[in-house]
Write a structure and sequence with these properties.
It contains 10 helices and 8 strands. The chain is an alpha/beta fold. The chain has a single domain (4-318), classed as Aminopeptidase. The strands form 2 sheets. A 6-stranded mixed sheet has the order 1-2-4-3-5-8, with helices on both faces. Strands 6-7 form a two-stranded parallel ribbon. Strand 3, helix 5 (146-165) and strand 4 (171-177) form a beta-alpha-beta unit. Helix 3 (45-56) packs across helix 5 (146-165), helix 3 crosses helix 10 (303-318) and helix 5 (146-165) crosses helix 10 (303-318). The longest helix is centred in the middle third of the chain and has 20 residues, at 146-165. It starts with a helix and ends with a helix. The structure holds zinc ion. Zinc ion binds next to loops.
């Protein structure tokens, strides 16, 4: 989309280049039957929204901030209470003005021994600045990131709690990436720090069937198009998720093809993990945006939106055959 070209940063248009599609068996669906459906737990948008509020209660969660430290402890506690196994990946990045930035990815695994696995992911850090804010004097202060950060994590924490009570039929790894939003506009190399690190160090034999990335899915006015790179990399995964949404009557998933977004799914796909990005960049709509401003606050998000995404994702996981 030409209009997006000059404005995006998280959403930089990627250079057109042909890459081989990652290999992987995303064909994982069973036809829903009554028994399977009965076993699928209810995803609660209200509980997920509380988990969003919990994160924003720590304030901005940009690397090296107090909120980042506090939120990390909260996330570790919540996932240790739900998952079979929780690991961290700690790494450093030399940031602006030679600052040494400490970053942590969190990996929570369910059924860690299962060979057949699904990857669910989101970034948990928030942006250290607000260069899109209308007030120039506040552009260098960190944002709260209710949608850009907390929303995807909230959905995954609620799903983790469901997995604890009702173990999923396949192995699941919930990965929370750090440092997605660190880079300044246009400084592409300083984005996606956590997912790049994860892709770089991943074991050769770690090959989930597919991955789903959640980013900015809490917008109260939620409409998720099919992100263009996801369609190119993993059309079968897009089909699985969108047909589930249609079956469930979840109308927040649009059949429109969205813009190309540079997000954490790109390093994963480049490392051979077929991953799609669920993202609604038009927050709240095409004409004005809270993205990377101090208006990215909980009152512009909703539990209903979190529930729409969480419900679809829950059904995708529980209807996947081992
Ligand atoms: Zn962002």
């Amino acid at each position: 989309m030409p209009v997006l070209y000059p404005v995006l940063l998280l959403a930089l248009l990627m250079p057109a280049c042909s890459r081989e599609q990652p290999q992987g068996d995303a064909k994982a669906q069973t036809t829903p039957d009554r028994n399977t459906m009965a076993a699928i737990p209810d995803f609660s948008g209200a509980r997920a929204f509380d988990l969003l509020l919990k994160q924003t209660s720590f304030g901005p969660r940009n690397p090296e901030s107090q909120g980042h430290d506090a939120c990390l402890q909260f996330l570790l506690g919540a996932l240790r209470a739900s998952a079979d196994e929780v690991r961290t990946q700690e790494f450093t990045h030399i940031g602006y003005r030679d600052a040494r930035i400490r970053l942590t990815n969190i990996i929570a695994s369910f059924k860690p021994a299962a060979a057949s696995r699904i990857l669910l992911c989101a970034h948990w850090d928030t942006r250290p600045r607000a260069e899109r804010d209308e007030d120039p004097s506040r552009r260098e202060t960190p944002i709260l990131g209710a949608n850009d950060g907390a929303s995807g994590v909230a959905v995954l924490l609620e799903i983790a709690a469901l997995f604890k009570k009702t173990p999923p039929p396949v192995g699941v790894d919930i990965v929370l990436f750090d440092g997605e939003d660190y880079g300044r506009e246009g400084d592409v190399d300083r984005y996606l720090l956590g997912s790049r690190y994860f892709a770089k160090v991943k074991a050769i034999d770690y090959q989930p069937r597919f991955g789903v990335l959640l980013d900015m899915i809490g917008d109260a006015n939620l409409e998720i198009p099919k992100e263009k790179k996801s369609v190119a990399y993993a059309p079968d995964v897009v089909d699985i998720v969108w047909s589930m949404a249609a079956q469930l009557g979840v109308t927040q998933f649009s059949n429109d093809i969205g813009d190309e977004i540079l997000d954490d799914h790109v390093p994963l796909n480049e490392a051979g993990i077929k991953t799609i990005d669920l993202i609604d960049f038009n927050y709240p709509d095409e004409s004005h945006r809270y993205w990377h401003t101090h208006s990215d606050t909980p009152d512009h998000c909703s539990g209903e939106s979190l529930e729409a995404v969480g419900k679809v994702l829950t059904h995708v996981v529980y209807r996947t055959l081992p």
